[in-house]
Fold each of these.
Amino acid sequence: MVWSARNGEGAEERCQPQPWAVAGATFLAMLSTAAAVGSPSVLILPLSREFGWSTTSISSALSVRMALLGMVGLLAAPLLNTLGLKRFLLSALLLVGAGLLISLAMTQVWHLVLLWGVLVGIGAGMTTLVLGATVAARWFSQRRGLVVGVLAASASAGPFLASPALSALAEVAGWRSTVLTLTGLIALSGAAVFALVPDHPDNTMHGAAGRPNRAGLAAPVEELLGALREAAGSGVFWVLLGTFAICGTSTSGLVQTHFVPFCADAGLSPLGSANVLALMGPLTILGSLAAGWLSDRFDSGWLLFWFFALRGLSLACLAFTEASLLELSLFGIFYGLDWVATVPPMVKIVIARFGVARANLVLGWISAGHQFAAAAAAYGTGLSKDGLSSYLPALLAAGALCLVAAAATPILSVGDGGRRS
């Protein structure tokens, strides 16, 4: 186990966990669960070929998973406070690993829903951005922004970066080899967490706050509900909730889940479409950093206007292209930059409107809305594809919703605390 040791300090200080070791193990855990969450997008076609399942049937499991990501993500902070970091992470990895491993023997759609939907959904929902923020706050007194950024990158870029390798493996050796590879990555993450991560940071300036909460979940859950009651009286909260539900619809629900089958309809190979998804991975990081820089200098509400408007127009353009590799790559470049660009200005607005103490709780509710909408979009898009034999209606509907979100966001510009351009 990695520990810090300084000459002249007491035994208790020498047993203090090394913060970067904790962050590294957490990074690996978040990356592996993110890869597991993103894998179904490249496995829809192999599963459909082997079992004859429709896109709607497979999408039902993915929509359950996305809904649970929102629900469990909302409760992640209370669960983490109750269990402590090590047990929290090991529980999450155990759920995801079990869901993947048992799925090797699945033969029915309900097996897929239970294993990839429920088990993987609950486990992955425990490794959201709340986890990264907690590690940064409790184990670091400096460079917290860097730590949050690095851990957020593992969660956002992980599904895209893993797509080409997983797709190639599925084409060459079958979907079960892909699942086994993901299970191995989960096991490696579990070993790192077991070796490097304690339950709480003893003897640091955050030690008391980092200890597991033995009082149980009742108090934190009541705090969550209290934050919702307070926020519900603000029109800003409802605009943010609605616009970020549309954000989930147009990203995780539509593009992340159905982009590979959409490309297959256009004649692009699964590996080629996975490469386009991989192109989005590093661009999501770049787009997020650029959006954070812009939100420090320009009005957050108007930034959201442009981000949503451009996203809506890009979806409409995609619907009417010939979906060539060049056109899809250009779409991937733009969509990658825009994927999480909405988050920094949204977070800034939440902090300015609801205060630092309540911000993470309000963000939890907004994030839950994002995931519930993504779940509905994943299933609805599959239903539309099976019924109409085309992704065109889903693309146009998502593009129109993004334009509606853009029209609603200027109201958020009043008093967001940012500098005016």
Amino acid sequence: MHLTTMLGLYGALLTAGVRLPDPVSGTWWMQIPLRLLAAAALTGVLVAAFRVFEKPSGARESRAPRAWAGPAAALGATLVAVHVTAPASMARMPAGRALVERAGRAARG
């Protein structure tokens, strides 16, 4: 659901005419926390809305669910994902930038 949310968020920004900054620019890096918070909030709303449909039919809970259980689980999963994927992404970023710059120089001649 998080990818759907992120694509929806970018679609809404582009539809609203918001000009997105160039990737890996200073402005781009400064906006990342805001975009992640917006996507996390929207994901929480969507999880809460679709939770009813994902429960198997005939399943009964032994007691009323706590209101904070869903958001807490989403936060925990996000923290685990960032801990696992962020170092690998950061390690690959210089190589990606070098490839983009190399392709740009080759295109210019």
Amino acid sequence: MRGAIRPRGTSQSAPARCTIARLSLSREAYSLPIGAILLFAALACIMYLTRNLDWSGLRSATATD
């Protein structure tokens, strides 16, 4: 199993996710703003992590032509 990738992020982020869920559920009045901020942060992380991916494949097609 030398080449296997371990899913570290899932197990390490579990306590943080539980804490966030507990805070948002315990503060009913602030659950909507907390949810919106968390959704924005998650989207920003996904955009940052995938910023160099070529989703359409145009770069590889134009490089070979």
